[in-house]
Amino acid sequence: MTDAPIRILMLGDFATAEMQPVDSMLGRWAPSADVRSAGNVDALASLVNDDGWYADLVIVAQHWPDEFTPADVTRLLELLPLARWVCCRGAWCESDGHNRSVWPAACCVFARCAETRIRAELAVLETGQAALPLTASRDEVFAHDHTGGWSVCENDAPVLVIGPDRRYRQMLRDVLASAGFVVTDSAVPIEQNCQFVVWDTDPWSPELSRSIAAFRASNPRAFIVAPMNFAHAETVAQALASGVDRVLAKLDDLSRLTDALREHDPQSVSRPELSP
C-alpha cells in the first residue's frame, strides 16, 4: 500500500444526531486521512470533474428512503468506480432493503452499526484485507460483517449480564466466556460491586431507566455496556443519562462488545451527572 493518506469523502448531512457518531469516529480511526465533504451529488461531481480529487472511501448519510434516486446512485458509482462505499441509513430507512434496492446491499449499513463496517473498509485500504464486493448478496454481507472474531481477555474479569430474555443472556454468556471473561447471569439487577455489566436494554422504558440509575448509584465504578435493538440517537441519549457508559446496537458485530470491555480502563472513570 502507498504512504499517501486515505482520501475519504463524506456525502450528505452528518450534522444530525444519528450521523454525528459516524463523523466523529473518523477522528479516532483515520486521524491522518484527507477528509472532504459534499452536500449533494453535484458537489461530489464537482470535486471529481473540476478538482480531479478521487476518494478512496465514500461515506454516505441517508436520512430517509429515496433521498438518493437510482439515477443518483448510478451516477455516483460511475464517477468513483474504484472507491469503497458505505451508505449509512438512518432511522427512517429501517425497511430499506426489504422494499428498495437503490444502493447495492454491500454498501448499506444502519448508521448505528456503521463503525464496524467503516473500520473494515479502512482495513481494506490500509492493509489490503479482502474487500466485500459490490455484488455481494445480503447473506454474504451478513457473513462478512460477523466473522471478525474477538480478542481474548487475559485478566479473568468478572462480567454481570442482566436482561429479561433468558436465551439472549445465555448467548451473551457464551460469547463472553469464550472471550475469557468470568460471567454472572441474572434476569434482574444484583446489588454488588461490579467491574463490568452487560445490560440488555430492550425494551427501553422509564422503569428501566430508573433501574439503571439506581444500580449506577450503588455501583459507581461499574462499566455498563447496553446492547439495544433500535439504538437511535434519542434513546441512546436517555440511556447514557441514566448511567450507561456505552450503547451498542444488537445487530452489530459482537466483537464490538468484547472489545469495549477489554479496552476499558477501570482506573479511569469519568461520566456526566446523572439525570434525576
Quantity of strands, as a count = 10
Q: Spell out the helices and strands N to C.
A: EHEHEHEEHHEHEEHEHEH
**How many domains comprise the coordinates?**
2
Distance between the termini: 52 Å
- CATH first level of the largest domain: which class? Alpha Beta
CATH topology of the largest domain: Rossmann fold
Low-confidence stretches: 267-276
Reported CATH architecture of the largest domain: 3-Layer(aba) Sandwich
Oligomeric grouping of the chains: single chain
Mean pLDDT: 86
Structural account:
With 276 residues, this protein is an alpha/beta fold. The protein folds into 2 domains: 139 residues, Response regulator (Rossmann fold), CATH 3.40.50.2300; 106 residues, Response regulator (Rossmann fold, 3-Layer(aba) Sandwich), CATH 3.40.50.2300. Helix content is 35%, strand content 18%. The protein contains 9 helices and 10 strands. It has a 5-stranded parallel sheet, sandwiched between helices. Strand 6, helix 6 and strand 7 form a beta-alpha-beta unit. Helix 1 packs parallel to helix 4, helix 2 runs parallel beside helix 3 and helix 7 packs parallel to helix 8. The radius of gyration is 20 Å and the shape is elongated. The C terminus is likely disordered.
